[in-house]
Amino acid sequence: MSNRLKVAPNDLSAFWMPFTANRQFKKAPRMMVAAKDMHYTASDGRKVLDGTAGLWCVNAGHCRPLITEAIQSQAGEMDYAPAFQMGHPLVFEFANRLIDIAPKGLEHVMFTNSGSEGVETALKTALAYHRAKGNGSRFRLIGRERGYHGVNFGGISVGGIVPNRKMFGTLLTGVDHMPHTHNLAKNAFTKGEPEHGAELADELERIVTLHDASTIAAVIVEPVAGSTGVLIPPKGYLKRLREICTKHGILLIFDEVITGFGRLGTPFAADYFDVQPDIMVTAKGITNGVIPMGGVFVTKEIHDTFMTGPEHLIEFFHGYTYSGNPIGCAAGLGTLDTYRDEGLLTRGAELASYWEEALHSLKGEPHVIDIRNIGLIGAIELQPLAGEPTKRAFSAFVKAFERGALIRTTGDIIALSPPLIITKGQINELIDHVREVLRMVD
Ligand code: PXG
User: Fold this and answer.
1) 270-324 pLDDT tens trace
2) Atom of ligand 1 nearest to the CA of 292
3) Pick from 5, 311, 393, 432: CA 20 to 30 A from residue 320's CA?
4) What angle do the packed helices 344-360 and 326-342 form, to 10 degrees?
5) Gap from CA of 331 to ligand 1 centroid (Å)
């Protein structure tokens, strides 16, 4: 470790960091060098409580033995096997284990290497499905304002985060967006699902009327929007979206990249809201964030639609060199074993009310204009500094890190999503860190 602790700032120029203020970071780097369970170790030796499960992915906590051992042993046994026209046992075992816990109706899974690739896979599957059914006129894809579906062209096209889109030309054509559901005037400080806003699902009817259902392939939403600052669906909203999609023959895609694998206290958000999507995108928690991987789940109806024609022909011209690679599958199986042995896919339900009370105890602290929560997700929205949006929350993030807690900010919203192994004592500790930094920042 001693070597790793001595990273000098003038060594930092080669790496162009993702979604980072590079110049600011490189002047005052924040480095992690080790991790175990609920904590990181920073490069100055301090322990940092992980309030964000890395980036919403380390659901079982860090460096868990079953996952580490599975990767180590697979790396020595078989490192890679070709993914096209060849197989290896682990990928089939992993797929079966995933389908065992998947929401009802989702019976097949394709593998990717990230959430962004999962989104592209889902959108392409939707288009190809309709075409295979003889409905090639269904080419439109509908997303939502403030949606985040990764950073590839399909994902940013259906996504609704302006800085992620505006630099990149015309994007996909034939895309439309529903309005987001965030409404502070009506729903501020709601615990759990907000009362107001289910009627916003009817905006999909308006879009259908505008374009005609016969042109629309799919609607994609995050059941709970994460990256944009934790937007929790109003009561009844997702069920209404499902009804409208079904009525018009439109596929409903749930992007469960952050909600999948126990984040809401159920295995998936589809279970929590009792709404069945046609396609479900997952990543992050699928391997506890340890090996890059994603899984795209589809119904039997979608899968079987492709399984026609001569058997020697490839049914779907899509896939990646590393789809279901052995070490990723080993990590995934170790992850599922850990979730199962420790009951982590439902542990959030036991902690949710404690988490909710702890979070909402921040009401009345400086700058706080909203607090929202669901499962083991929390958000604290701050009044932006006049003329300097994002600065206040970012300064809270830096101060929290210095004090020993990792939080995440987006805009002027603090988002919290700890590993599902967090204890009540650690919830108190995390919230106390946030309380202290709110009292410290300008
Ligand atoms: N869909 C959703 C809903 C996501 O949250 C992606 C797709 C893309 O996944 P990949 O694996 O390609 O990054 C995501 C990713 C944050 C944060 O702090 C969220 C994500 C990534 C990084 C940071 O909110 N979500």
Assistant:
1) 999 999 999 999 999 999 999 999 999 999 999 999 999 999 999 999 999 999 9
2) 11
3) 311
4) 70
5) 20
